[in-house]
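Hello,

Our lab assistant flagged a job as stuck in the queue for most of the afternoon. It eventually completed. Since we weren't sure the result was trustworthy after the delay, we are filing this so someone can double-check. Below is the sequence as submitted and the structure that was eventually returned. Let us know if re-running is recommended.
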Amino acid sequence: MAGTIQEGLSSVTSSPLQFFSWMSLSPGLGFPFPWLRELKYEESGLCLIHLLVACANHVAAGSLENANIGLEQISHLASPDGDTMQRIAAYFTEALADRMLKAWPGLHKALNSTKISSVSEEILVQKLFFELCPFLRLAYIFTNQAIIEAMEGEKMVHIIDLNSSEPAQWINLFQIFSARPEGPPHLRITGIHDQKEVLEQMTLRLTEEAEKLDIPFQFNPIVCKLENLDLESLRVKTGEALAVSSVLQLHSLLSTDDEMLRRKLNSPSMSKNLNSNRSHRVLQMNQRTLGEWLEKEPVHIYSPGSDLASPSPSSPQALAPALKMGSFLAALRSLSPKLMVVTEQESNHNGPTLMERVMEALNFYAAVFDCLESTVSRAPLERQKVEKMLFGEEIKNIIASEGLERKERHEKLEKWTLRLELAGFGRVPLSYHGMLQAGRLLQTNNYDGYKIKEENGCLVMCWQERPLYSLSAWGFRRYD
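-- returned structure --
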C-alpha cells in the first residue's frame, strides 16, 4: 500500500478520478454525495489519497472553509476499522482537524480539557506493539547481542536505558549473561522514563528475574523526560563498563534544538555580526532543521586536534555546541561508553513545512498499517488500540503540532550518523550472531513480508522493500 501512494498521486487517468481531481481542488465546491458513493472499491483508496493531499494543502494555506469541505468528503470513505487506506485517512483527518482547531486556542483547550491519559493503557499499547510486530524484538535482539559482545570479560556492567518501558528486553539479556562460563557480571541498569508507574513495574519485574537467575543486580530508576535529564543522576562509577540503549527516543530532543536555534538566530548579537550574505544563510537555516543542515552543509567530524576556534557564525558548527542534541550526545560520549545502540524511525517527519511532513508520514504509516494488517486480521481490538493510541498519536503530533510540542521529529539514519560522528562516536560493526538470531525470529514466527538489511554497517528493518526502522551501534572513539 505504501508504494501506491506516490504512484497514485501521478496516475489519475480514469474518467471518474479525472473529474474528482478537478472537483476536490476547486475552492468552494460542495461535496458530491452521489459520486463518492458510486466509487468502486479499487478507486476509493486512490480517491482518499487525493482528498487527503488536497485537504492538507487547504489546511497549510489557511483555507479552513475548503479544508472543512475536504474533511467532510473524506469522512464518507475513511474508517478506523476499514482497509489500510481507510484507516490511515481516519487518523490523518483527525490530525488535520486538530491542527485547524488550534487556530482557536480556547476552543481547542476546552475540547481537550477532560481527556485522561491512562498510564496502564500506555503500557498495554507499547506491549501490544512489541507483541504484534517484530520491530522492537529485532531491536532488542541486536542491542542485547551487541552488549554481550562488547562486555565480554567485564565484571561490572552498567546499562543506561533512555526509554525504560519494556522488561522483556533486559530479561533476555539476564538469561544470556547467566549462561556465561565465567558467570554473570554485576549488572546495574539505569532506567529513564517520565512515568513513575512504568519504572515501578520495571523495577519489580527485573528484580524478580535477577533473583531467579542469581544475578547481582541493581535498578536505578530516574523519573524525568529525556530533555530534562541531569547526567549526574546516572551515577556512573569508576570500573563500570558502560552501555547506552536508545530505542525510538533521541528524536524527541530535536524539538528543543529548533527552539534554541530560533532564539539564537533572533538574538541582537547574532543579527549585528552577520553581513548580508550571512544573513541570507541564517534565513535559510531558520527555515530548516539542524538535521537538514547536517545533510546539506559541510560538517567537521569531532577531533580534539581540529581547528574549530572560529567557525562561521551561521554554520551548524557555531550553533551545535549550544543545542540540546549536540550537548546531550557530547555529554554521553564524555562518560566513555563502550557501546551505544540507537534505534530510530527511518523516515523524515521533521520537515519544515506541513506538506513535506504529510507526504512523508502518509508513505511511512501506510506501510506500518499494512504490516499490522498482515500480522493481525482487521477486526481485533488489539490492532485498533495500537493504531489509535500509538501511531494515531504520532501522526497527530507530526501534523497538528509545532515548536516544542512537536516531539515526533523522526529523521533518517544518514542524519543520525552525522550527529553521532560529530559528537565523537565511532561506528561499531553489526553482530553476525545478531543477524542470525534476527533471521531465525522472522522465519520461525512466519513474519512474511518483514525484512532486515545491512546498509553501511547499520541495520534497516523493512516491510516489503520499505525501510521503517534503523539500528546503529556506536562506541567511544579515542584519538591519538
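-- support follow-up --
The delay was a queue issue, not a problem with the job. The result is valid. Residues 10-31, 277-322 have pLDDT under 50 and may be disordered. The chain is about 55% helix and 15% strand.
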